[in-house]
Write a structure and sequence with these properties.
- The complex is a heterodimer of chains A (112) and B (113).
- Chain A has no helices and eleven strands.
- Chain A is globular and about 35 Å long.
- In chain A, a hairpin with a 7-residue loop joins strand 9 and strand 10.
- Chain A has 112 residues and is mainly beta.
- Chain B has no helices and eleven strands.
- In chain B, the strands form two sheets. In chain B, strands 2, 4, 5, 9, 10 and 11 form a six-stranded mixed beta sheet that branches. In chain B, strands 1-3-8-7-6 form a five-stranded antiparallel beta sheet, with no helix packed on it.
- In chain B, a hairpin with an 8-residue loop joins strand 9 and strand 10.
- Classes of the chains: A mainly beta (112), B mainly beta (113).
- At the A-B interface, strand 4, strand 5 and strand 10 of A face strand 4, strand 5, strand 9 and strand 10 of B.
Chain lengths: 112, 113
């Protein structure tokens, strides 16, 4: 997982509170992604970015927002956390899709 | 919904045996990639096969692609206990070309010593 750092690694939060997850890359990759991983669903794309201030929605974007003010940082915000957002969140980065992604180690989020 | 579907969902074999995992997808693709995930870790890129390729090798890994059947297989030969992990296929779809990958649900491989 060298080059992609996610923080925090674990978080427990209460329903209704905002939560921000951070992803930092040192590889100067253009593309960055946030996925969530749940049993029976594999990895589902939440949002992605194709450059500074350029972002787009994935298949499960409701309740989430993102920001990318610098190439190296991609933030995922849960505006008002719900129990259905309990999941493991993965950040990934890529220079070109044809060369694959580099993933972070994940953030385990529990909403109680 | 997921583009790729892996089969089987879980596979348990003995060390030294070969493991075969299959992936089916629904759309036209530029390439298909396989990833491994060890428990509690992020995914790691293993191998990529382009849509105009039929077979590719990397060490003990062999990947095949049949675009007419929209399917791929990953073969791990002479498996080791350290190969125990989840394996995911991911497609670079022509419709979303170059912007993102779509992942399947994964196959959990257990290699017993």
């Amino acid at each position: 997982d060298a080059g992609i750092t996610q923080s925090p690694r674990h978080k427990v939060t209460e329903t209704g509170t905002p939560v921000t997850l951070r992803c930092h890359q040192t590889e100067n990759h253009r593309y960055m992604y946030w996925y969530r991983q749940d049993p029976g669903h594999g990895l589902r794309l939440i949002h992605y970015s194709y450059g500074v201030k350029d972002t787009d929605k994935g298949e499960v974007s409701d309740g989430y927002s993102v920001s990318r003010s610098k190439t190296e940082d991609f933030l995922l915000t849960l505006e008002s956390a719900t129990s259905s957002q309990t999941s493991v969140y993965f950040c990934a980065a890529s220079g070109q899709i044809r060369y694959g992604y580099t993933f972070g180690s994940g953030t385990r989020l529990t909403v109680v | 919904s997921q583009q790729g579907e892996e089969d089987p969902q879980a596979l348990s074999i003995q060390e030294g045996e070969n493991a075969t995992m299959n992936c089916s997808y629904k759309t036209s693709i530029n390439n298909l990639q396989w990833y491994r995930q060890n428990s509690g870790r992020g995914l790691v890129h293993l191998i990529l096969i382009r849509s105009n390729e039929r077979e590719k090798h990397s060490g003990r890994l062999r990947v095949t692609l049949d675009t007419s059947k929209k399917s791929s297989s990953l073969l791990i030969t002479a498996s080791r206990a350290a190969d125990t992990a989840s394996y995911f296929c991911a497609t670079d779809d022509r419709e979303t070309s170059g912007s993102r990958l779509t992942f399947g649900e994964g196959t959990q491989l257990t290699v017993n010593p």
